[in-house]
Amino acid sequence: MNPDTITLNDLQNGRYIQVNEHFSEMLEYSKEEVIGKIPLELGIWNNRKDREKVMEILAKDGIVRDYEVQFKKKSGEVVDTLLSAKHLNIGDNRITVAIARDITQKKVAIREREEQSRRITLHAQALMEMATDPEFVSGNLESGAKKIVIMASEVTDCDRASIWIFNKDDPNTLTLVVGWDRKTQTNLEKMNMTLSSYPKYFQAIRKDRFVDASDAIHDPRTSEFADVYSRPLGISSLLDAPFFLRGKIRGVVCLEHGGELRRWRGYEKQFVVTIAEQVTQLLLNAERKEAKEELEKDGKSQDF
């Protein structure tokens, strides 16, 4: 089937003489609703200025090639198209033949690529700023971790971001050490999760580089804590990444989204993995800071 709409209009009065089946499919009007009507009666031009420009070009050159315009469906939905049109003589009649191709999906794909490029640039800038932040570099664990979760929630447009660390005294317990609620601009309260209560989740973070639960309530990896965590907090989607220190898992970075289910993009998954790596670096910086302070303390004791 021809993917283009084809219409014939009487040049004298602008009324439709004929339309093909794809016209009806694309704009949701039957032939009976269209024949004998003018486009303005149907309101199919989304922007009248586009129509005026097309008419101007036709009057001057007699032909229009691949002019980008938007048409409006019967339902009100807007369709992006490339329009070509030409004046023709058929016997004693002057008509306008117009051909339009739906490029809506192509335009959506272009916008998605542009948004992806913008997001990747934003992510890179945020990560660079964090890597050179004085609190991060100096190993100030508390303030450095807080800056990471605030940055992560803002850059990814997530409702909440948090860092969880395995308890040194109880390696079966994961503790939320710092978290940020972007909507309320408040810190999250500390809480614990026990491995034995959520075996599928802990198996996932030990095995995979990230857990991308678009549907946190029903995803097998995260459904175990739906009733005690996700539902009460209004969390619909989760994106978590474990971080490691000297080959052992030390904790998890968690991004949380509320509202409609969110399909995590590839660049978002890479971003949370990189954030997890930054947490590892922060832990190393904190260890160096602590070791340096101990050396300075020992030096002062010897001097005394």
Short description:
With 304 residues, the chain is α+β, with helices and mostly antiparallel strands. It is 44% helix and 30% strand.
What's the structural blueprint in terms of helices and strands?
Blueprint lengths: L3 E7 L5 E4 L1 H7 L3 H4 L4 H4 L5 H14 L1 E10 L5 E13 L2 E10 L1 H28 L2 H5 L2 H16 L3 E7 L6 E9 L4 E2 L4 E3 L4 H9 L3 E3 L12 H8 L1 E11 L2 E11 L7 H38 L1
Write up what this structure looks like:
Keywords: Kinase, Phosphoprotein, Transferase. This is histidine kinase. Its EC number is 2.7.13.3. It catalyses: ATP + protein L-histidine = ADP + protein N-phospho-L-histidine. This protein is α+β, with helices and mostly antiparallel strands. Helices cover 44% and strands 30% of the residues. The chain is built from ten helices and twelve strands. The protein has helices at residues 21-27, 31-34, 39-42, 48-61, 104-131, 134-138, 141-156, 199-207, 226-233, 266-303; strands at 4-10, 16-19, 63-72, 78-90, 93-102, 160-166, 173-181, 186-187, 192-194, 211-213, 235-245, 248-258. Strands 6, 7, 8, 9, 10, 11 and 12 form a seven-stranded antiparallel sheet that branches. A five-stranded antiparallel sheet has the order 2-1-5-4-3, with helices on both faces. A hairpin with a 6-residue loop joins strand 6 (160-166) and strand 7.
